Amino acid sequence: MSKVLLEVKGLRVAVAGNEILRGVDLMIREGEVHAIMGPNGSGKSTLAQVLAGHPAYAILAGTVTYDGKDLLAMIPEERAREGVFLAFQYPVEIRGITNSYFLRSALNAIRKHRGQPELDPMDFLQLLEDKLKNIGWDDSLMNRPVNEGFSGGEKKRNEILQLAALEPRLAILDETDSGLDIDALKTVANAVNELRSPDRSFLIVTHYQRLLNYITPDVVHVLADGRIVKSGGPELAHELEAKGYDWLRDGAMVS
Amino acid sequence: MAVKTGPVERLVGAYHAWATNGAARAPAWLKDLREGGIAQFREVGFPTMKQEAWRFTSVAPIADAAFELAAPASRIPHPAAIEPFLLGDAAPHRLVFVNGLFSPELSSVSGFPAGVRVESLAQALVTDADLVRRHLCKYAAFQDRPFAALNTAFVRDGAFVHVPAKVTVEEPIQLLFLAVSANDGAARVVAHPRNLIVIDREARATVVETYASLEQDVYWTNAVTEVVVADGARVDYHRVQRESGRAYHVATTETHQGRDSTVNLHAVAFGGALSRHDLRSVMAGPGGTLILNGLYLLAAEQHADHHTTIDHAAPHCASHEYFNGVLDGRSRGVFTGRIIVRPGAQKTDSKQTNNNLLLSPDAHADSQPQLEIYADDVKCTHGSTVGPLDPRALFYLRSRGLGEREARRLLTYGFGAEILGRMEVAALRAQLDRIVRARLAET
Question: What is the pTM of this model?
Fold first, then answer.
């Protein structure tokens, strides 16, 4: 069995005084793809944001170990440099900064951390071209300001493009499928599949099962009321699609 | 008993002394123009904060200080000293003015297509008097503008650019206005540069107008520029205000557009203790396109007021206005965006945005759109923001590996880069980009 990359134990998290995560346990090994599903308000996006280090959340209890290190002790940029990547549900628009300039700055911050030489614009473009070729995309988004004036689909595509360029070890996809039509969904899913590798793990947060028709997860978890109430194989996603979430919620309460 | 002289009387006195001495040989029409200017200024005086157009800006520091016209024999700086303000090989043509007066030693004008005029206004008043007379003061009305009236009273020099019909001047023409210590450094100097740019039918030109100083003196620039763009013509006009941090800068820029013409107007303000820039663009013919693109980057106690008016007087015109402010220290930025859509100006497409970034809790911005729409089939949108850096954007950048300091700098830089990115003159863009980066390094 491959090495454990991420281990979450008894994680309890509050935002603005409300406890959202009430004791989450989760273990992801290198190369695995985990999906977290659950109804609205279950805490899925909170988990994704907490792992990336969003400052709005208060950790009440629990530990998160990433690659043997205490993830919760790291500031967001340290997590990114150590290989944690969050594809945002709502990517932010950055005026005046081109995608290419932004991505090169980010990549160089990560390379510097790894002790690699920084890339000049020419080297960066070459590297980017190679990465884009791997997922079958062109560089049409690169010279536009980050996410500004992008369609919903372009914003989500841009998150995956960053994922491809920054090469994280743990990629967290926060509802990347929301707001995508079926063609855009397939494009994104195909790119994610190309990016799967034995040394990269994925945590895919989604409300719907349809993304998992194109990305087959190793493990599916159901998060309800701040706790993981059930885990299983890919077939669990289909079961949820057919039966909804209520049966699990009730089950969680009696058990 | 000594009679205390007020600021207005003092300036009127200075005008009469000059009019009867230095300016006595002017032609009658020009004298009439000047007399009209001083009469108007005497009547209305300096604006006060009780006036709607001046409610956020006090000009008391200008009114209360005594300024003198620079003597014609101002010290001429060494050519090497002005290089930081020039654009190198990218703009070989330049008119340089020292304290408002033309400096042939520092200027370089040659090799234009036939019929193109690029010369000092003082020269043009002699050699191209009819052309100047036809346009001068025909656009920048001064009835409601005391500073433009005062400038008109003291009209004597500035830049004159005329591009005849169907002629394109490829390389940018730079107009550089330098303030240097003068009159033995004993007095504070005022200059009233007056510029007239006339682009005839289907002609095209690019102009870069720069205001700068070699010293950190207190002085006052009171400039007026009229830009006339005839049918089918295009001008890319850039205005760079990088005066001394202790200077006062008041300016009026007026553009007047004919049918199917294009004006791309870029205005950046970095300098000045107190600056006020009135921009008025009249879209007088159908099918015109206007871009008003501005940036103010302020720190310490700086105060900059941009008062813009876009006058849609004809149908089927498009105007896009973008002004960004980056305010640090105790600085204050004021933006007024007035858009008038006249009756009959149907199919007007007007878009205005003003975004202000406050880098310090003591910085302040006032942003006020004023839409006056008298036509019913138009599209007019406006939006403005005032606030610190967006925490969501900060987290987004940090989640990609950028350190907090670098993330802040990048987001701040974006406010400037968004505006500079619309300029087509690469050498100017690079020059301004260096200034923006240097200023950010200080924060």
Answer: 0.92
